[in-house]
Amino acid sequence: MPAFLKVFIESASFFGNNIPIVAVASLSFIAYLVVSGYLREAGVFFLSIFSLLYSVLLKNIFRIPRLDTYAGDPTKLGDMYRFPSSHVIFYVSFWGLLLFLTFKKDVFGDGLAVYLLRIISVYHLLFVGISRVFIGAHTVQDVVAGYVFGAVYLAVLIYLSR
């Protein structure tokens, strides 16, 4: 596999591996929504972050151990078990809601920024699952379950935003 393709795929997991970046991005979007007068959307976007806790709850219900190929820290909250993929659940909730909001009203306008947000959101949504399997953190089953559980959480968020 070409090196650029490997980096492109593996990079999809980067956002979910960096809590400070998640915090800054989340707070930035929430601040933008509040300042723009979209308080309901800001609140719902805040709830998207709680999909991380939802994924940890699911992992502790299923209790399926990590793969031998996993190089993470199994003592960290949410890293002890692999099923379902927390990255995928969070990405579907976070990036899925962001993508939804780019099509709702004029939350982000219609300029270049909204198209960039859509491209970034779709990239993360499409490649996080491939990335998690590729780096050895999850199986296809873990990733598919992450998409399903993430879609359920996202559906609730979208319902709350209406």
From TrEMBL:
Q: Where are the transmembrane segments?
A: 12-35, 42-62, 82-103, 115-137, 143-160
| Keywords for the protein's UniProt record, in alphabetical order | Membrane, Transmembrane, Transmembrane helix
What sequence ranges are listed for the domain Phosphatidic acid phosphatase type 2/haloperoxidase? 47-160
Q: What is this protein called?
A: Phosphatase PAP2 family protein
Q: What is the lineage of its organism?
A: Bacteria, Katanobacteria
